[in-house]
Model the fold of this input.
Amino acid sequence: MQLHYIGNASQPSSGGRTLPVIDPSDGQQFDELQRGTPDDIDSAVRAARQCYEAVWSKLSAAERGRLLMRLSARIADHADELAALEQRDCGKPTKQARADALALVRYFEFYAGACDKLHGETLPYLDGYSVFTWREPHGVTGHIIPWNYPMQIFGRSVGGALAAGNVCVVKPSEDACLSLLRVAQLAADVGFPAGTINIVTGFGHEVGDALARHPGIDHISFTGSPKVGTLIQQVAAERHCPVTLELGGKSPQIVFDDADLDAALPTVINAIVQNAGQTCSAGSRLLVQDSIYEPLLERLGQAFENLRVGPAAMDLDVGPLIRASQQQRVWDFLSDAQHAGIPMVAQGQVVDQAPETGFYQAPTLLRDVPFDHRLAQEEVFGPVLAAMSFRDEDQAVQLANATQFGLVAGIWTRDGGRQLRIAKRVRSGQVFINNYGAGGGVELPFGGVKSSGYGREKGFEALYGFTTLKTVAIRHG
Ligand code: NAD
Done:
C-alpha cells in the first residue's frame, strides 16, 4: 500500500480511500495508492510553508546545492530500484526506465551546481542612487506531473524549483506515482528538512484541482494535456498565481532530399516509438520532400515491420501503453484513418508472449495523411507516425506550422543556409537540426509556444521561472 509523503512521513489519506495501481504489461492490479483529498493537499501545503519559513529559506544557496548533490548520488545508488518501480508502474522497457532514472540523477546534479550561480544584477540609474535586483524564490511551488515520464519531469520541475530556493508540493499522475514516492523518501534519508518535498497522490480533478486552487501555493508548474492546462490557468487566474505550462505537441520531422537518410531514419523511428509514442515531443508528423517520398517510405516501412512490442520486462523496441483508455484512444484514431481511406504503409508486431490483458499497440506508419485530418492535427500519444510530402521550403514551413502546437521541430538537410532559414521560420520552442535531441538534454531549456504552453523548464533558464525579481533602489545622496 502506497501512502502520501508529507513532512518526511508516509501518511494515509484523510478520506480513507484508495486507487488501484495497474501494471500496463498485463493489466493486473499489483498495489494501491491513496486517493487524496483537498484536506491532504492542505496538510502538504502547511508542512511545506512551515519548512520554507523556518528552515529552507534560511539555508545558503551552497547548502541547498550540497543537499541536491547528495540526493543525486543517492538516486544513482538506487537507480535500478527506481527504474524497476517505474517499469512496472508505467510499462517502460528496461532501457527506457533506466535512462529515465539516470536523467533524474543528472537533473539533481545539474541543479545542485546551479544553486549558487543564480544572482541578480546592479543597474545604472540616476546620480546618487544604487539599484540592484534580487532573484527571490516564489516560496511554496505546486507541481502537477503526468504519467509518461514521472522521474524525468519530477527532476526538471522539482529540481529547478528547489535549486531556486522553493519548497514543493507534488501531485503525480494517478497512473504513475511509485518512483516519485520513493524519491521523496530518499530525499529525507539524505537530510532534506521535513516539508521540502511533499507528495499527495490521487485524481487530477480532486487533488490536482485542490492544489492549483490552494491560496498557499505561490507558483504552479503544470505538465500535461492542453485541456487541463487551460483549467489550471483559469483556476490560477482567480488569484493571479504564476504558472508554467508544459503541454503537448504534434512535432514535425522535416526531411529534405539532400538529408543523410542513414542518420535520419533511426532517429525518426525512435522519435515516434520511444515510450510507445507517449512523449510530448514525439516526432509524430513526418514531412518528406516529394522527390524522396516513395523510397524513404519504403525503407521506413521495412523498419516498422521489424519493430517488436511486448511486456516491459522483455525490453523490446516498444512496451505497452499506459492504460486501457489510452489504448482505446489510439484505436479510435486508427479507425478514423481507415474510414478516411488513409493508407497504412506498415505495422510492427506484438510478440506472442504479450498477455492479452496488457495494453499493446503495434507501431503504425500511415502515409498521405491530409494536413487537416485529426491524425495530423491532434496528439495521438501512441506509436503512430503520420507521413505527408512537400514540394519546397515554403510548403515545408507551412505544413510544419499548420497545427495548434509548437513544441519541437526536427530538420534534416545538409544545406547550412536552409537549416537556419527553416529553424527561424518554424514556430516551436525547440529546433533540432540533423538530430532529435540526445541524452536527456537536462542542460537545454525546454518548452513550447502556441498550445504547447509557455515558460521554460530544464537548463539554467528554468531558474528564472522559479523565481521572482525584486528591484531595490537606494538613494545615498
Ligand atoms: P493530463 O493533463 O490528463 O494530466 C496531467 C496531470 O494533471 C495529472 O497529474 C492529472 O492527474 C492532473 N490533472 C487532471 N485533471 C486536473 C485538473 N482538473 N486539475 C488539476 N490537475 C489535473 O495529461 P496526461 O494524460 O497525464 O499526460 C499526457 C499529456 O501531457 C500529453 O498531452 C502530453 O503531451 C503532455 N506532456 C507534455 C510535456 C511537455 O513538456 N510539454 C511532457 C510530458 C507530457
